[in-house]
Amino acid sequence: MTTTFPITTLQKRVEAIFRNAGINDVQSAALARVIVAGERDACKSHGVYRIEGILRTVKAGKVRGDALPVLDDAPAHGAIVRVDAAGGFSSAAFELGLPTLVARTRDLGLAALVVNDCTHFSALWPEVEAVTEHGLAALVMCPSYASVAPAGGIRPLLGTNPLAFGWPRPGRTPYVFDFATSVTARGEIELHRRAGKPLPEGWAIDETGAATTDPAAALAGAMLPFGGHKGSAIGTMIELLAGVMIGDLTSPEALEDLGTTTLAPRHGELILAFSPERFAAGRAGNPFDRAETLLLAIIGQGARLPSARRFAARAQSEAEGITLSAAEVALLDRLLKRGLDAVS
Ligand code: NDP
Ligand code: PYC
Description:
The structure is a single chain. By secondary structure, the chain is α+β, with helices and mostly antiparallel strands. It has 2 domains: 1-59 and 307-344, Malate/L-lactate/L-sulpholactate dehydrogenase, four-helix barrel (Hypothetical Oxidoreductase Yiak, Chain: A, domain 1), CATH 1.10.1530; 66-182 and 225-306, Ribosomal Protein S8, Chain: A, domain 1, CATH 3.30.1370. The chain has helices at 7-20, 25-40, 50-59, 90-108, 125-132, 186-195, 215-220, 229-244, 251-258, 276-280, 287-300, 308-320, 326-338; strands spanning 2-5, 70-72, 80-84, 110-119, 137-141, 163-167, 175-179, 204-205, 211-212, 222-223, 266-274, 322-325. It has a 7-stranded mixed sheet with strand order 2-3-4-11-5-6-7, sandwiched between helices. It has a 3-stranded antiparallel sheet with strand order 9-8-10. It has a two-stranded antiparallel sheet with strand order 1-12. β6 and β7 (175-179) form a beta hairpin. α1 packs across α2. The radius of gyration is 20 Å and the shape is globular. The protein starts with a strand and ends in a 6-residue tail after the last helix. The structure holds NADPH dihydro-nicotinamide-adenine-dinucleotide phosphate and pyrrole-2-carboxylate (PYC). NADPH dihydro-nicotinamide-adenine-dinucleotide phosphate binds at residues 45-46, 120-125, 142, 144, 160, 162, 164, 177-180, 184-185, 188, 304, 306-310. Residues 45, 121, 144, 160, 180, 185-187 line the site of pyrrole-2-carboxylate.
């Protein structure tokens, strides 16, 4: 049996779960927005199933539910805008920094939002899309915790390190891709474990370094980077830019700090924004029109753009609501009723 919720109803219910668990209003609202966006857009690996992990991380004292992010927008920092998440979740910190990032990008042509000291569990496309809504392009990345073996290695070292890109398309949904630099997000492995389903070949190795399709063995062993040495190099770049360079934790350091892979990790995040108009100034052609020529040619070959599936799911959710399984509804009811007592 399933239940269908209007989007705003689910937002209120998820927000109430977080508030009930002692998370302050600003963080509860921001957290609920990304979780419900995940369900609305059929991205189950970062939807309601993540709520338990968030509450476990609060209960373990590894994230501050009472944190208020602090913006450092001193003009002396030039293109770099910084938000200290103060040990809270990344979502509220991003929302606080976004208006200054947009203003600085319009002024300078490009700017960076650095989020430090945040717990991060979410998909990156909500942030990429939020930047594109201002007519800017965006590149977003963050480490996670050591769970991916570098190409040629057999032990977890890199994180699943997501990378997302967005390009604004006036009058249309933006061009957005967002993926883990591992073959898949770790959340997918956990969902396979819960469903008792084997993994596709090539996703992971066990603790001895042998290929495995057993989700439990994969979680105990290591995930593999996508595209072999190419994904491994991009994952390493993310450790350098969104870990080392911004003075925050790399994935191995985040795992050491957390002590487990069952909670959400604490590290930083890097959001880069670009003004296509400023970059193309003085050159022939309107960058947005030229982008359309390219993107429409991709579709013209019968290919689909990344996020097309997501935007279709969103349109359906907006028209019909979000449908959850009986198990998911029972989980929400239990978490709402019992708060932090519902998780171990
Ligand atoms: P997927 O492999 O599911 O999807 C990656 C991207 O590719 C999406 O933009 C998707 O668009 C697009 N895509 C998929 N199939 C096609 C196709 N046939 N043609 C064109 N585009 C396609 O993503 P992952 O499992 O790698 O990651 C899932 C999520 O996990 C991401 O949102 C990521 O941010 C998040 N994540 C977060 C981490 C964190 O530390 N916070 C760590 C790792 C991952 P569409 O959605 O429309 O299918
Ligand atoms: O799905 O790989 C993942 C992930 C790690 C941290 C948050 N999501």
